[in-house]
Amino acid sequence: MKRWIVMDNMVDIIGIREEYCTNCHQCIAVCPVKICSDGSGDVVKFDNNLCIGCGRCIEACVKSHGGIAEKSARFIIDDTPQFVQDLGEKDIYALVAPSAQSNFNLNKLISALKLLGVKGVYDVSLGAEISIAAYHEAIKSGQAKIPLIAQPCPAVVKYIELHNQSLIEHLAPVGSPLYCLAVYVQSLHPDAKLAFISPCIAKRREMRENQMLSYNVTFQSLHDLLQAREIDVDSLAEGSFDNPVTAGMATNFSTPGGLKESYLFHYPETPASSITKIEGPIVFEQYLGDLEKAIQQGKPNLPLIVDVLSCEKGCNMGIGCVNQQYSIDEIEYSVASRSESGVSDPQANQELDDFLTDVLSKHDFGYYLYKDRSLSHLKYPNEEELKKIYVDMHKLEEKDFRNCAACGYNSCYYMAVAVFNGLNKAQNCHLYKEKELRLEQEAIWMLHNELANVFDTMSDGVIVLDQEGRISQLNPAAKQIIGFSDEKLIGEHIVDLFCGTAPKTLHLLETGQSYDDTEIILNGLRGQVHVTASAKPNYNEQHQVNGATIILRPIAQVQELVNKFSGAQASFSFDSIIGQDKNLQRSIKLAMMASHNMSNVLLQAESGTGKEVFAQAIHNSSPRQNGPFVAINCAALPRELVGSELFGYVEGAFTGARRGGRPGKFELANKGTLLLDEIGDMPLEQQAILLRAIQEKAITRIGGDTVIDVDVRIIAATNQDLLELVEQGRFRADLYYRLNVVQINIPPLRERTGDIGLLFDYFIKTMSPKFNRKIKDIQPAVIKCLEAYDWPGNIRELQNVVERILLVCEGNQVTIEHLPREIVNAAIGHRDTWQFNPGFGSPSQPLTDRNSRKLAALEQEREMIIRALDANAGNVTKTAAALGISRNTLYRKMKNYTIKN
């Protein structure tokens, strides 16, 4: 909402073509008033009553549109249409501005105007001579208030009327050169219409106010009119003004200082220092305000006359000029040379003086139509209101207050004041637009970077195809998979890359049907590459397929992922092997040596001794530690499935084969280690295929014909004597010698009784948190019992015993009553005497004979069953599982011990 109040409306002199406005704010930037914008936002309109008519906004707009006036959003409004319409119908006399000398061949222009139909042509320079003489009389008579501000420039007059009201009384009480000449010409031709030919657009307002002239025609409009009438000015004979006398020094009136030079010429007794010459933007930006303050403060040395013009270089560089093709030197020379010739003839000078004396005595050239057009005071925002406007303008930090004037205002503060007063809006702040663009750009850039990072850092290869199926982009992973660079692959057809066949991809480009996880063989730099491919179509704006995106995953990578989530990873190291037995340490040392090379290893040991722990430790200490560790129990597989498990199969290889086929353990173990557990139980017919795969390092899936290279280290494990099986013909000798490169024998637990205590303690500590137990003490007799036991299940059995103990132990001490009966029974008959608490009788009772030990064992078993039943809330199934016996056995023991549930 506008808060401006103007005393009356001023005539329009600047028009706007809204369709050409780009809201660049250049018009506001060059505008002396700044506050003429109406804040419309999308189009920078303006309040005509606030416009002083300097025309700077038109110049800026034309420049911003490449110098093409027809595309400018702002244009001059003058009276040319009415002037053309009245030519030939009314008596029109033309009054030509002094600046015509720098825009046309002046004498030929006079002929052109008369050719158009004007009755006579007068030189406004003569009006300037009248104004100067009238200035002198006004100063001499005291009618003028000093300093006298010259008023030939209507833009300056309007600015003073709007902004410097105290200077209004200092405006010359004499009409402008145009007004003075119009008064004189009107006396000669009372019924005629007068037209002003000039570059000034603001003169239209002055003419409307004094009603002395009917038409304001700019040089640009006149130039266009002459061209339209096909009048070639340069080809015409020279004409002459209809002035009664020739103007002298005042022909220079259109230039800055022209008034000063003319005044000093006619009145040489006037000190040159008493006339101030000022022009251009500084008039509005500083000078008028400073002059107003100086007058109010009564400062000394105030000028007698202020020669002031709005345009730099005066009227010779006005918006309506057509001399842009001339240099400044040419323009100034044309004006100066005419003024010099005007004062060189003494007789002409005398005639001019006589003329001025005569007209001043006969006519009143006084001018008192100045108006107070003062604006009401701006409303200024308070701190909170100002802060809100700044936030809306994206001014959040000190650096945001640039005061760049890109918005047209001299500072961010004045822009905010304009916004507060409804003269503009925050979105027109160029920082706002810049930040909006920057935020949008940052969002796009971040999205681009995110997508680019995803594209570049994906472990999967990405290939982008165009509509023809040719490669347009690919990421680093794809180049690494295939082995070729961008230059080699860009433009390559997908059929050529996919070994001459790509039916699913071609079908996708035709129909848009995607596909997933299809095995593909690629033509890579180092031979064929086995991958899985998934593809999705790309669409254009019309939702037509215009390409595809293919995701490639090397089979090895897929297998690694499968191994990771299927548990095909080695978790044990040599530190995981607990024991100090010399034979065990010898086996560990040999395994460590074997881990540093790629030789096949044969682990010979009973079940439960930790063959897989050794195998994993060898793998984790080898160069293949980052590869997969895949184990397969050959004894657990049906004979007919051994081949498919080891080597995989293709789709349709046999009834029940999974769609798409399936890789075997050799493929899954590629670049890693394959543990063939219980190798002695492998069927003889599969041993030959296994031998070939180990020798050739390649396999062929069942039902397929593609040879797949595999790089696998073999560790075989068995609890049988393979050499004896070879002698029996149940195991191939060549396979045996292929596997038995490094043979490692792992001693059973019964042969290293010294390690039982270490293992038992280790299992107690590592397994206790699982059962929420905190064992602080182990009865020495427990270890004695454990060492007396034969451990047919080896370490696996010991681990199970510890789990059972932690299940039934309710306190923080482990005693023999927590041991399984078979372990205690094994200890009966031991020659040593043990001190332990059997759970009945006195706290410490020696077991010195076989019967007492047996009794203690039976009582211990009875107590253990009762405790287990209590722990499982009487559930027989869970109790039997906890004790490691069957339900029938538990029922029989409960009957024997008279235990009621």
Automatic annotation (TrEMBL):
GO molecular function: 4 iron, 4 sulfur cluster binding; ATP binding; metal ion binding; sequence-specific DNA binding
SUPFAM superfamilies, per database record: 4Fe-4S ferredoxins (SSF54862), Fe-only hydrogenase (SSF53920), Homeodomain-like (SSF46689), P-loop containing nucleoside triphosphate hydrolases (SSF52540), PYP-like sensor domain (PAS domain) (SSF55785)
Stretches assigned to the PAS domain: 447-498
Keyword field: 4Fe-4S, ATP-binding, DNA-binding, Iron, Iron-sulfur, Metal-binding, Nucleotide-binding, Transcription, Transcription regulation
Domain 4Fe-4S ferredoxin-type: 12-41, 42-71
Domain 4Fe-4S: 385-446
GO biological process: regulation of DNA-templated transcription
Residue intervals of the Sigma-54 factor interaction domain: 577-807
CDD domains assigned: AAA, PAS
NCBIfam families: sensory_box
This protein's name: Iron hydrogenase
Source species of the chain: Syntrophomonas zehnderi OL-4
